[in-house]
Amino acid sequence: MQKELVVQKFGGTSVGSIERIRNVAQIIKSTAQSQNNIVVVSAMAGSTNKLVEMSQEMSHKPQPEAYDMLLASGEQVSCALLSMALTDIGVKALPLMAFQAGIETDHSSTQAKIARINPKIISSYLNDGYTPIIAGFQGISHNGKQSIVTTLGRGGSDTSAVAVAVALKATRCDIFTDVDGVYTADPRIVPEAKRIDKISFSEMMELASLGAKVLHMRSVELAAKYQMPLRVLSTFQPNEKGTTLMNPEDLLESPVVSSVTSSANETLMSVRVSDEVAQYPAKFFRPLADKKINVDVIVKTPQNSNNRSTISFTVPSQDTAMAIEALKPHEVDVHQEPISKVSIVGLGMTTHHGVAATMFETLEKANIPIFLVSTSEIKISVLIASSLKDDAVRAIHRAFQLDK
Ligand code: ASP
Ligand code: MG
């Protein structure tokens, strides 16, 4: 019988030391009995950060081509070490940097997008009986006579793995990381939080955009687009089931709410503007975008007297001063206490009513005032004082019985 083809991706913590790389080699070896593996690795934990620091010491404005070459070196190290470990335990492995594996990207250094992967290159290694060990996060871009090393943006090795799985038509992509899946809430805040066995791609995309660090956003997008089954597994408990991401149609019945999450400190700002600015706010927001300030929840309140409106929005707390500066000469009213965004995500919301009402009642009972609300089809977010964030998450988790 033909063995199934699986892409296995190991994150930075999983390959964080020589000992851990040996452990990963054992996982690959034991799974190889029932499947053909293609392996994608991250850099050893902390090493990419160190490379970023070195470049900052060297230059205020590092040359992008050099910066990417420097950052890509982290994955080169873990890839080579893992291949050695596998060879030592009798697995026929071969380390491949992205250019050797045929992973081509566009030409945008530090945020490159994968343009194509030539599947013939990796398959020929598989046909020769090798387990290819591929450096994640990096690519090669050919532009005329120039070829440059590129990287996909921080956390991008998940995206490398899914792209390889899609290109090689693998059965699935297994992401081995330091947690054993996606949870109904952060277990550090809610000890009763449960691991979610199955979740839809769209819910996971919402969670990733809300700051869940488990998977690189683009990897989930890519998996959804090509319907590539994706599993999140723990390297340290590889026999646990983990969380499987799938199409909503393949989930028999999805809970109304799957997960509660919360963001780090943000600052709430309000600016009184003319109706004209409120109606055409592009010029108002442009200076923030130019300073790369991530504006989140935006609410406009029309005013009926003296032609003034209010635009309220949030920015990450560390960008507060920069945002005030960027918006000059507008006078910015800054909400004094830090705020956090608490969100619930669930596919079942589209067909159930009363979800928002339950969330608001729960917060009211806990005496937690809400400043702003924003929603998508499968998400409700509220802005509340950061000091009450953990209480809110716990109360909401209980109200939707996510511990059951
Ligand atoms: N090593 C890269 C980073 O730290 C890519 C990754 O780990 O996914 O961002
Ligand atoms: Mg990662």
Task: Give short descriptive properties of this protein.
404 residues; alpha/beta; eight-stranded mixed sheet; four-stranded antiparallel sheet; 13 helices; globular; binds aspartic acid; binds magnesium ion
Please describe the biggest sheet, giving its number of strands, its sense, and whether it closes into a barrel.
8 strands, mixed
Hetero groups in this structure are:
aspartic acid, magnesium ion
What is the helix fraction of residues, given as a range? 25-40%
Beta-strand proportion: 25-35%
Helical run tally: 13
User: What is the molecular shape?
Assistant: globular
* Mean pLDDT over the full residue set: 94
Got a strand count? 20
* C-alpha-based Rg, rounded: 23 Å
Could you give the topology of this structure?
Layout: E1 4-10, H1 18-31, E2 35-41, H2 47-58, H3 64-88, E3 93-96, H4 98-101, E4 103-105, E5 114-117, H5 119-127, E6 131-135, E7 138-143, E8 146-151, H6 157-167, E9 172-177, E10 198-200, H7 201-209, H8 217-226, E11 230-234, E12 243-246, E13 259-262, E14 266-274, H9 275-279, H10 282-290, E15 298-301, E16 308-316, H11 320-326, E17 332-334, E18 339-345, H12 355-365, E19 372-376, E20 379-385, H13 389-399
Helix pairs in contact: 1-3, 2-3, 6-8, 7-8, 12-13
Bound molecules: aspartic acid (ASP) and magnesium ion.
Magnesium ion binds next to loops.
